[in-house]
Amino acid sequence: MKVLLLSRADVEKLISIRETIEAVEEAFRAKGLGKAQMPPKSYIFFNRYDGDFRVMPAYLEDTEAAGVKIVNVHPQNPSKHGMPTVMATIVLLDPQTGAPLAIMDGTTITNVRTGAAGAVAAKHLAREDSRVVALIGAGAQAMTQFLALNEIFKIEELRVSDKVEANAEKYASEVKKRFGISIKLTDVKEAVQGADIIVTTTPVKSPIVMNDWVSEGVHINAIGADAPGKQELDPKILKRAKIVIDNWEQASHSGEINVPLSKGMLAREDIHAELGEIVSGKKSGRTSRDEITVFDSTGLAIQDIATAWLVYKKAEKVGMGTEVELL
Ligand SMILES: NC(=O)c1ccc[n+]([C@@H]2O[C@H](COP(=O)([O-])OP(=O)(O)OC[C@H]3O[C@@H](n4cnc5c(N)ncnc54)[C@H](O)[C@@H]3O)[C@@H](O)[C@H]2O)c1
Description:
The chain is an alpha/beta fold. Helices cover 37% and strands 26% of the residues. It has helices at residues 8-14, 17-32, 77-81, 107-125, 140-152, 165-179, 188-192, 235-240, 248-254, 258-262, 275-279, 301-318; strands spanning 2-6, 36-37, 42-46, 51-60, 65-73, 86-93, 100-105, 132-136, 157-161, 183-185, 197-200, 219-222, 241-245, 271-274, 292-296, 322-325. Helix 4 (107-125) packs across helix 12 (301-318). The longest helix is centred in the middle third of the chain and has 19 residues, at 107-125. 50% of the residues are buried. Nicotinamide-adenine-dinucleotide (NAD) binds at residues 73, 75, 78, 85-86, 110, 114, 136-142, 161-164, 167, 201-204, 208, 223-224, 226, 297-299.
């Protein structure tokens, strides 16, 4: 029984941000229509190392994509070990037999599918003519968030804020080199004031974007909070906003809403929809220019498996990867 091994280099050659946005949007549609199985991710915490890992299975019934991702989050990795904060491995299975089909690097897939979810959310929730984007945090997720938003919007002004100046500078020079867009490096307050879209991608555990700083009509992709106790936004922003989550079980446990919910500052009735309900047309997206919208992303296994499936099918077509007799 042959299993296809795909390295990070293989995945990077095969993956495309545009196709990933389409696959992720389809996956959210399938979820909204009840055509996806996806138990919430389960966590193992390495408290003594400030890290954790999660196991994330999913099955998309229409495309027959099935599999599981194992992914860690260790925020000290870049500074202490010269390794990424987030690393992942994905195994795809044949739904008919349960046999493993492929084992691949899921790190790039995690970053790209997270950017894609941000773009899908912004497509349905941000004002169509959004031009000014503020990125809070300038790490791996911030890069794919920009790449994906850049596919949907005509970004004219990009502002970046990171507590580590060197990270913001590196980010700015990379984006300038690749896209010719110049970036304003600034503090969080100045970055978010008057922005059309704000994206937060930090691992913080107390709010860094305050209510007074954000204008009516803004859309916020809250990406960083994906474990219990994490939050990036002043809960007063959530009280003003139309809140869209990716999944109730995950978001209430570990998303941007988890801390305000546990403190009784927010209730389930305050949540407008899951993104899949909006993509599948069951609930409305943005309905006025002035409303504030927030997408609370925790990252769903359906995003990973849809993207990994796309990569696997392309690899088969072009004959990329290494086949091994695993079993
Ligand atoms: N929602 C999802 O699907 C999803 C997917 C992957 C990662 N994440 C989460 O996103 C976060 C970022 O992941 P990453 O891979 O980009 O990590 P990263 O380490 O590459 O980048 C994080 C950046 O945030 C900056 N930062 C930290 N504290 C800050 C602060 N107070 N103000 C401004 N900047 C600050 C860091 O200096 C760093 O540059 C993590 O919390 C991770 O768990 C979420």
